[in-house]
Amino acid sequence: MINQSTPHIKVRYWEDVKEGDELRTLEFPITVYRLVMAAGANRDFNAIHHNSEYAKASGAPEMYANNLFLQGMWERCVRDYIGLAGRIRKLSGFRMKIFNTVGDTVTVKARVTRKWLDGEEGCVEFGIQSENSKGVTVGPGCIVATVPRLKPS
């Protein structure tokens, strides 16, 4: 079913979810513009996220994405799968291992690892991680979400 207010996002029902489903892989090029916009949007004005010289002086290889920006990438990946009617309940295993610096492209990969009913709610667990050319940068982690059901009892 297509949501008319956002025609590119489909409603996904619990009955349509299959364990092992691969979510669409998303790529996010990390540019100076994106880092500056993210710093302004989430009010993280620490210069390590938008100033190369400052970031390098602190020991980082370059200015880099902060955790809210990276968590937003994970939400976008899952949200594209669950649709706007789904609700994210929990995020765990979010561990930043490698910097995601300006010039990198962050790739987010996820799959359905489990589905179950919690009372009347359809629950879905996703295994998820971020990667760049250096390897796994964030995760692997887990997101638990609820999605609507076609036939609640």
Radius of gyration: 17 Å
Strand order of the largest sheet: 1-3-4-5-2
Q: Output the CATH class name.
A: Alpha Beta
The chain-level structural class is: alpha+beta
The 3D shape can be described as elongated
Low-confidence stretches: 1-5
Report the strand count. Answer: 5
Helix percent reads 10-25%
Search tags:
Thiol Ester Dehydrase, Chain A, 153 residues, disordered N terminus, 5 strands, alpha+beta
Protein model, in words:
It is a single chain. With 153 residues, the chain is α+β, with helices and mostly antiparallel strands. It has one domain: Hotdog Thioesterase (Thiol Ester Dehydrase, Chain A, Roll), CATH 3.10.129. The protein is 22% helix and 32% strand. It is built from 3 helices and 5 strands, in the order E-H-H-H-E-E-E-E. The protein has helices at residues 32-42, 52-57, 67-82, and strands at 26-29, 87-92, 105-118, 121-132, 135-147. The chain has a 5-stranded antiparallel beta sheet. A hairpin with a 2-residue loop joins strand 4 and strand 5 (135-147). The protein starts with 25 loop residues before the first strand and ends in a 6-residue tail after the last strand. Mean pLDDT is 91; it is low at 1-5.
